Amino acid sequence: MKTFTTFAAVGALAASVSATPALTPQKRADVTPITIKGNAFFKGNERFYIRGVDYQPGGSSEAKDPIADTAGCKRDVAKFKELGLNTIRVYTVDNSKDHDECMTELANAGIYLALDVNSPKYSLRRDKPGKSYNKAYLQSVFATIDAFANYPNTLLFFSGNEVINDDETSSCAPYIKAVDRDMRSYINARKYRKIPVGYSAADVEENRVEMAQYMNCGPDGARSDFYAFNDYAWCDPDKTSDDWEKKAKTFSNYSIPLFLSEYGCNKNKREFNAVKGLYGDSMTKAYSGGLVYEYTEEGSKYGLVELDGDNVKTLDDFDALKKALAATPAPTGDGGYNAQGTKSECPKKSKHWNVDMDDDTLPAMPKGLDEFFKNGAGKGKGLVGGSQDSGEDSPPTGPAASGAITSGAVSNGGSGSAAASQSSPAAAASVRVPEFAASPFVAGFVVLVSSFVGAALL
């Protein structure tokens, strides 16, 4: 719904504190990086279900970065914990800012980030998809990946949100898929951890299935890692939803993870009965949870809380969601996930699916992307400037996976040498969960380092 169309001196430090008395380290929550098996997310060997909210204080009208707002982040993490969340979605970040403190706060609470890489001035436009798909736009996208790739609690990246909202705008699908391809290629080229990339779609009934198929068809180099959509069909006080049941059957053989990037109908008093359904046996074969829209009240009556400076006022919806989640723990076992699914067939052009390109054709990568693949994206432009008119009206096309880089990402939760060079000195290390031995040497080391980087390591 929120949419814009689119330690160099470590050895010396350790030696200087070798006689410091031992202290018991504070244990952090487990933020094991999330991986994909079949059509499900996994945290180690346990299936991972997204239980979260959409988080963008200020709404889509204000381009602000809540992950760079340390005070606001600390304020809200306490409420996320109260709700029992494991994920938040953020729609806009400033890729020129530092995010270590907030990402550490989230990690300490066991909370993952689902992040949109677009911003109001750097995104695909549904009315000008070709012109807005260009090198300047992708530089911003890649700089956002650079800013968040080394955090182990970065769960996934959204390549777009609700770019398609009717039959006519389905013509944007190849550009969305091209951005998806380019993001995965960049992650592989820079040897980052294999962070999933996928699209957040509007729930357009006429082409819902076609878009899901399209993002999961064709050569592997052009297929999404996951698919999500924004679904408000289940409204309280209903205890069940025929619409959701039908969708679960439709997607029962879908071979990549599927989840709801927004849900929480507000036509009536919200009881969040959909929570029980979403994490029930009939849904878990196809769905991996979802994100409730939305944390803050922004005038549309979807908010769980109202913000007044540093004060947070919880609303009735907050209490209702808290109750629903507490009464519906995450499923145990594998939920009957599809471990060996096959890719989808590409949809054919129809009155509801306005895509002229062949199944194995996509917009060609803009010239100059190989520079980013080799050297990194460089400094992010943040929330200033813009890229939406920097390209050609009709950019060239080519084989869908042409130029795609399909290997190189680290699959075990580590980060490659290129990745390490892209982040600030504390970025990856500050939110990792170290296993400290209870020895004077190590405990003293922790104390001294904490004096340099503050609460980020404690």
Topology record:
Layout lengths: L9 H7 L17 E4 L2 E4 L2 E3 L1 E5 L15 H14 L3 E4 L9 H9 L3 E5 L12 H4 L2 H14 L5 E8 L11 H17 L7 E6 L5 H7 L11 E5 L11 H9 L7 E6 L10 H5 L2 H4 L2 E6 L12 E4 L2 E4 L1 H12 L33 E3 L5 H7 L21 E3 L17 H6 L17 H14 L5
Parallel strand pairs: 4-5, 4-11, 5-6, 6-7, 7-8, 8-9, 9-10, 10-11
Antiparallel strand pairs: 1-2, 2-3, 12-13, 14-15
Helix pairs in contact: 2-3, 5-6
Main location: membrane
GO molecular function: 1,3-beta-glucanosyltransferase activity
EC number: 2.4.1.-
Describe it.
With 458 residues, the chain is of the alpha/beta class. It has a single domain (10-347, 357-418), classed as Glycosidases (TIM Barrel, Alpha-Beta Barrel). Helices cover 28% and strands 15% of the residues. The protein has 14 helices and 15 strands. The chain has helices at residues 10-16, 70-83, 100-108, 129-132, 135-148, 173-189, 208-214, 242-250, 274-278, 281-284, 316-327, 369-375, 417-422, 440-453; strands at 34-37, 40-43, 46-48, 50-54, 87-90, 112-116, 154-161, 197-202, 226-230, 258-263, 287-292, 305-308, 311-314, 361-363, 397-399. It is globular. Mean pLDDT is 86; it is low at 5-26 and 414-458.
